[in-house]
Amino acid sequence: MESTETHPDRLIDFWEWLVENRTQVILAIIIAIGAVLIVYTQRINAQLAEEASGEDVLAAMDQRFSTDEVNPNASASDRFAKVVMNHPDTAGASNAKFLQASALFDEGKFKEADAIFSVYALENPLSPLLPAAALGQAACKASLNDSGAAAAYEAVRSQHADTPEAVQATLALGRMAMAAKDAPKARELFTAVSTNRVSQLWANIASDLLRQLPPVESQ
Fold first, then answer.
1. Which is higher by pLDDT, 171 or 68?
2. Chain CA centroid to CA 173, Å
3. CA distance 68 to 56
4. For residues 63-76, b (16+ Cβ closer than 10 Å) or e, as one string?
C-alpha cells in the first residue's frame, strides 16, 4: 500500500502545475495582497477622516481652536453646516448636524432647526441624542406656535420615558397649560416634575411654578 506521506512525484506534479500557472498564481497573490492593503488603507483613511471631522467640530464649537476649513466669523449654525458638508459619513458630521440644529434654535431659526432635528433623528435612530433631538423639535414647534407642539412634547414623554428630556417635556406642557389658564392640568404636570427622580433642577423649577398657581380652593 502506498504511504500516506506526500509522494515525491506529487511534489513534482505540483511544482509543474505551479510553473505552468505561475502567472495566475502571482496574479492571485497580488489580488489578495491588494485586498488587504485596500482594507488597511480604508481603515486608515476612515480614522483620518474622523480625526479631521472631530477637529473641525471642535473649531466650530469653540473659537479658541481653529482649522483651515472653519470660518470663525461665520454664525455657529453655518460653522456646523460646513462640517456636515465637508465630512460626510463621519461621526463628526453626525454630531455637527445635531449641533447645527441646536445653533439654529439659539439663533431663532425655528423652522430650519426643526427640519435639521428631523433629519438627524431619521439618520441616527440609535443615537443617545435622539431624545434631545425630539425635545428640540417639540420646542421648535412651540416657538412657532405650531398646533402640533403639545403632541410633540407628549411623544417625548411616551417614547423617551425616564430621561431628562421627558421631564423637560412634562415641564413644558405644564407651562403651556399654565399659559392657557388650565390650572388643574398645570398643577398635575408640575407636581409630576416636582417629584421626579431624574433631575433635581427641574424639580425645583416645577415647585416654584406650583407656588405661582392659584390655591386649589379658588380654582
1. 171
2. 25
3. 9
4. eeeebebbeeeeeb
